[in-house]
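Problem: given the chain below (241 residues), write out its structure.
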Amino acid sequence: MSNEKKPGRSGLPHIDDSMLSRESWKIFQIMAEFVEGFERLAEISPSVSIFGSARTKPDHPYYKLAEEIARELSDSGFSVVSGGGPGIMEAANKGAYEGKSASVGLNIELPFEQVGNPYQDIALSFRHFFSRKVMFVKYASAYVVLPGGFGTLDEFAEILTLVQTKKSRKIPIILVVSSFWSQLIDWFKTTLVAEGTINAEDLDLITIVDEPSDVVNIIFDHYQSRDFKLSAEEQKTMLEL
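Solution.
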């Protein structure tokens, strides 16, 4: 085999040492976010992560709905975890804050929109979406998704992918407000299933409801025959999340 260099390889860009150093030190900042998240959230179980638009105003029906759902979950013994910002996130924290269990906010530093709400018993701050997303999943006994935009869809797709691929334990994934979600789920059926990009049974991971009491009942029904604590197999799965 020839040891000659391929043409053009000598033109590789030079890596700036100062930039490489900054990138390397960035790892410690990322580690710190994970360590703080693990230490502060390990004791909030059982918990439910709630998602929805940051743009929803306090006088909107969706805000009131999220607040009621969170209050019922909190009074039922679930810590409630949201993104810590305004809109549906604020409604979720507010409902939980007024209930019996912990209200948790996983805040993200953004150039706009994200301002921490005042209804957080536990408030964490993240610079990186990926470390924040791990915290939403790692300690959640269920996901509750209200109407939202790209960020909400991202979190919805994330948990679906993790459960579908068995990289996370199976938990209830609940969409709230059927009129908002029905066309998306129809598209899943008529396009994704039809094209073979997902299996028909993957849709069984999703439940759509409209009433706060239905959210609570679905979660308790899921855990009726088991404990909220992770099994040994689930602990291994979540450790490797």
